[in-house]
Specification:
alpha+beta; four-stranded mixed beta sheet; 3 helices
């Protein structure tokens, strides 16, 4: 399972998404992720919208196995429901 997180520095939800992905990479066999800083990589909002396939207002934008999951909230919910991430684990 390969996850790609598109985010940027200074974004608290991007930091949280990386924390969840890091935890999942420790807890879920075969879970790997890549974080792409859109500013450092020169990815524009229009580029990200083409990748996502719809208008994008926020980051992070997260894909699992090339399927768009959404932002942090959707990623966290998906991880809890499908990958065994429980909200009782603090901190993530």
């Amino acid at each position: 399972m390969f996850t790609v997180i598109f985010g940027r520095d200074g974004c608290p939800f991007c930091v949280r998404a990386k924390e969840v992905a890091t935890q999942l990479s420790k807890d879920v066999e075969g879970f790997k992720f890549k974080y792409i800083d859109i500013i450092k990589e020169g990815i524009s909002k229009a580029d990200l919208e083409k990748t996502v396939g719809k208008p994008v207002e926020t980051v992070p934008q997260i894909f699992i196995d090339q399927a768009h999951i959404g932002g942090f909230t959707e990623f966290e919910a998906h991880a809890k429901e499908n990958l065994g991430l429980y909200s009782t684990k603090q901190p993530v």
